[in-house]
Amino acid sequence: MWTSRDGWILLFVVFCLILVLLFLLWQVSFHKKPDSNVASEDIAVRPLQSERGRSTPWRRHATQQENNTAEATTTDSASVVVPSAKKLKKKKEAHREAERERKQALAAAREAQRERLERERQREEEEREERERRKEERLAELERARREKEELEAKEYEKWKSSIELTEQGQEEEEVSEDLLPQFISYIMEKKLVVLEQLALEMNMKTEDVIQRIQSLQEQGQLTGVFDDRGKFIYISWEEMEAVANLITTRGRISIKELSRRCLDFIHLDGKYE
């Protein structure tokens, strides 16, 4: 990348080259002038042979001095030119070194910028992935909650449906039982001694329901009797119960064995309904 500093350096180098070129031209012209002077002096003094003879040693001395002066000037100019070339070389090397350092610094800055941009890109990518992950987790949580709600609602619906069916079935059974209630009571009174399982089969009921129905009728006063430990129910009419009560009242104290024997006299288990 070209900068103003590079432009100034280039102008300085061109200026130095121009100065060196002018100095060399001046040196060349300076060395040519004594030769022309000598030639002119030789031409001027040729007609004067006598003077030329007399002035020869002096002229030789002057010529020698001029030659020495020219050599000294040449040496000085050479000594001047050499340091200028060295300085120019050093300046070029310094310029190249500065350019190399500038390029290295520029490359380092570009690399640092590239690394910074790469870090920012990676950070943005990680943040984007984190947002996507959280979004997926929220969606999964919502989906799971929706499924759980649907399952709960389905269970509640099935429970409600079963409850309605059971209620309707219970109502139907209750209606059937109410319709069969007179038949239920008549069957027990006629049989006097009924097996509960057989009664359940006759009435198309469960044994537990038969027991509960008999207990309910006893509480209502519509049916009297006792359960034994062999799954049977013995129906006892009010008249039979009053006869047993009168026996106990008349006799006062009576043994259980005699009471059981006398109860068989009062309670008829032959299935005849009074």
UniProtKB/TrEMBL annotation:
It comes from the Eukaryota. Residues 64-78 have a biased composition (Polar residues). The keyword Endoplasmic reticulum applies. The chain crosses the membrane at residues 7-26. Residues 49-138 are annotated as: Disordered. Belongs to the DDRGK1 family. This is DDRGK domain-containing protein 1. It comes from Galdieria yellowstonensis.
